[in-house]
Specification:
Length: 310
């Protein structure tokens, strides 16, 4: 680059890249020896928050993002604003942040290297008013379709795109729950004509087994028979003998890691249906399964009703 001044601006450099610069002086006689070389590292590109992969609960949030850089960066800073701004430094592309219950936070991320911080990512809003998660589409059975907002599960609707993942027998999908050992709550809207299973399972649960059939999953099952609607609460293939007289159309699921309980409720009646008592050895995922054509709609981000965690 030829310039007449004693300074210049170099443009079109790659982000998060190292460059060497040196200078020579030229007159009518000759070109001078090169100056000492200077090393310069450009700042990184701004990260991209993966909002569909983020999750939250009343006391924490899980934030995930893509680096946006080809070369590794040194670290990231997560900026959380709710009245005041505080910053958390992390080494990888995700972090769990402890937050206050019932608040709405603005969150963004920067990538950092020796050259300095990147521009801020797009700002997202994180709420701690309830438990919030997305469905893991990569875990879906090939027969299932997922609505565009990611919260309604269809079986047998050809108008919606099919997610092509091989699962042998259990027509199911998992949700990505935040890994926090607290109290978590969500609701599922169901149809009377649909046979379904709703519950939780460990990540290592075999995908070719039905929910509730092994000791790694727990579920509420609805079965249609010629004479009545039958409900089972299955774990390791066994269910207590219970009779539910009013068919629930909206089911509340309350998971309490500290007490080791998983409870189901008829939300419209505020009626307790059943509670599993178990010491969870690890974090579990919400599970949703359809045993015949129909649909389920997951509602999350809901504050747990007062009758659930007593």
């Amino acid at each position: 680059m030829m310039v007449k001044e004693t300074h210049c601006t170099v443009t079109d450099l790659l982000p998060n890249a190292q460059y060497e610069f040196w200078v020579t002086a030229t007159n009518t006689t000759a070109i001078s020896p090169a100056s000492e070389k200077a090393l310069y590292v450009t700042v990184p590109s701004r990260p991209v928050i993966k909002q569909r992969s983020c999750a939250s609960c009343p006391e924490a949030a899980l934030i995930r993002w893509d680096s946006g850089n080809t070369n590794p960066v040194d670290s990231y800073t997560v900026e959380i604003r709710e009245g005041v701004t505080y910053v958390v430094a992390v080494p990888s592309c995700q972090c769990v942040i402890q937050l206050q219950t019932g608040r709405h936070y603005l969150v963004c991320v920067r990538a950092v290297n020796v050259g300095g911080p990147s521009e801020r990512s797009e700002v997202i809003t994180v709420s701690t008013t309830g438990t919030f998660f997305y469905l893991l589409e990569e875990t879906a059975h090939p027969c299932l379709s997922i609505s565009e907002d990611g919260f309604t599960i269809f079986y047998g609707d050809e108008e919606l795109p099919i997610i092509n993942v091989c699962v042998d027998r259990c027509v199911a999908i998992l949700g990505d729950l935040i890994p926090v050992r607290g109290q978590l709550y969500w609701e599922v809207e169901v149809e009377d004509v649909t046979e379904y299973r709703i519950g939780v399972a460990y990540e290592d649960t075999e995908r070719n087994s039905y929910l509730g059939a092994t000791n790694t999953s727990w579920c509420m099952r609805h079965i249609l028979s010629p004479s009545r609607h039958k409900y089972e609460f299955l774990h390791n293939g066994w269910s207590p003998d219970l009779r539910i007289t009013v068919n629930p159309v909206r089911i509340g699921v309350a998971l309490d890691y500290e007490k080791g309980t998983l409870s189901f409720y008829n939300v419209n009646l505020e009626q307790h249906l059943h509670t599993f008592y178990c010491n969870f050895r690890n974090y579990v995922h919400p599970c949703f399964s359809l045993d015949n054509p129909g649909a389920l709609t997951v509602h999350n981000g809901i504050e747990a009703p007062g009758y659930t965690f007593i």
